[in-house]
Amino acid sequence: MEEKKEMDIIKNLRTIEWLKSEILTSIANLYQLLAKGEDYIKDDIEDLISNIMLLSFLLGKRMGIDYEDISSNLKDKVKLNILEGHKIEKWYGDLSELMEFLRTK
């Protein structure tokens, strides 16, 4: 039984390392894509950003954090940045728009 527990811990650690690597790869690919400055890359950008979000949720789960807790923390961060007058909010209202989106989904 002890050996199975050790194997599960090792498997989880390897999965965490793999997810971290995948996140970094996706971020690097996003930087490369943006550096090219090509037109009509919206689909590729959406794919990379959604992949980073997916991998981040999975990484949190592997580290013992529930999806609901991650989502709740995200909402708290958005609220705090609205209250603190983040520049993105002042300039574009993006945080209020994001908060509305998070409330309705």
TrEMBL record:
InterPro entries in the record: DCTPP (IPR025984)
Any one biological process term the GO annotation gives: nucleoside triphosphate catabolic process
GO molecular function annotation: nucleoside triphosphate diphosphatase activity
UniProt-listed Pfam families: MazG-like
Protein name in the entry: MazG-like family protein
